[in-house]
Amino acid sequence: MKTPLPLVFTAPRRGQPPRHLADLDATGRADVVKAAGHPKFRVDQLARHYFGGLTRDAAEMTDLPAAGRQELVDTLLPELLTEVRSLACDEGDTRKTLWRAHDGTLIESVLMAYPDRITVCVSSQAGCGMACPFCATGQGGLQRNLSTGEIVEQVRLAAKAARDGALGHPGRLSNIVFMGMGEPMANYNRVLAAVKMITAPAPQGLGISARSVTVSTVGLVPAIEKLTAEKMQVRLAVSLHAADDELRDTLVPVNQRWKVAEVLQAARAYADTTGRRVSIEYALIRDVNDQPWRADLLAEVLRRELGHLVHVNLIPLNPTPGSEWDASPKPVEEEFVRRVKAAGISCTVRDTRGQEIAAACGQLAAESR
């Protein structure tokens, strides 16, 4: 078994992204606009264009005076992300985009169309410090936390792309999952601020239901407890990958700090407080965590710790080039699902998307460095 890599919980210091509307509270926005020589109500106009119109193009903001319009947009809606390239697959239903931030940092987001929804998977960090050995992002290490503005901008750009037919037909972005690059709970304050802005009604936010937002974590217990205290209706997803501490210590090195029982107890408190089922993410890895007895153990542990307030989301591993980790064969996957369900635990297999476009988190960014 591989030796776990050291964990990194704080991002290295790098140049801060340009100040953005999404990074400021109401007072901060008003102060910036006033300092630029504009009346306070310009803030609401900018917010309506950004969150409601999904634009930062000054030419479209004809309700702002022509004189100083571009300067005002540059001041509060600077360009945070530029598209490096986008790849599409699944007959156009999946679109993965590589973005470059102001400092050259590369991050990824994935826009996906389903029969009943359009979902974007967003990044919360550039890279990741959790060091999970089967994850492309984790192997690249942590570069820095993303700003609130950079997180919200991924969602705004996805909503605009969906509206403008990037998936083959116009649609409305309905679901957000924080399952891209990075550990969301390790960038807690900015992720929480972004979630509040994503779910706030226009013109102060994008107006997406909190129940349609999923925040994942490998199990940072203090952060789960903080999110519980917020009493929001977002779904919590725990990347478990193993139900016993011995294996999880290797697959998810943060388990050396917070063990399986502690993580699931924190998840149970979240479920009890919000009334929402917790999603347990479990990447099936051939001959590592896919044995029948491990399915039985997973069901036993979840039934004891979470009762009926849980759903298991099995993830067929998306192997990265050169990795010794591989996906479980289909019959093994099917038997795993059967055993978990037989024990009374809800269990489904995640719809695999984008295997031909470097779909594993961080894979596209790694190929582009």
Structure characterization notes:
By secondary structure, the protein is an alpha/beta fold. It folds into two domains: 21-76, DNA polymerase, domain 1 (Orthogonal Bundle); 82-367, TIM Barrel. The chain has helices at 26-35, 42-52, 69-76, 136-140, 148-163, 188-199, 221-230, 245-251, 260-274, 292-306, 330-342, 363-367; strands spanning 82-89, 94-100, 106-114, 117-121, 125-127, 142-145, 175-178, 213-217, 235-239, 278-284, 310-316, 346-349. The strands form two sheets. It has a ten-stranded mixed beta sheet, with helices on one face. α11 links the parallel β11 and β12 (346-349). The longest helix has 16 residues, at 148-163. The radius of gyration is 21 Å and the shape is elongated.
Calculate the terminal CA-CA distance, rounded to whole Å. Answer: 29 Å
Q: How many DSSP E strands? A: 12
Class of the largest domain, according to the CATH hierarchy?
Alpha Beta
| Major sheet strand order | 1-2-3-4-7-8-9-10-11-12
Largest sheet: 10 strands, mixed
Query: Could you name the ranges where pLDDT drops below 50 across 5 or more consecutive residues?
Result: 1-13
What proportion strand?
Answer: 15-25%
Task: Evaluate the radius of gyration.
Answer: 21 Å
Helicity range? 25-40%
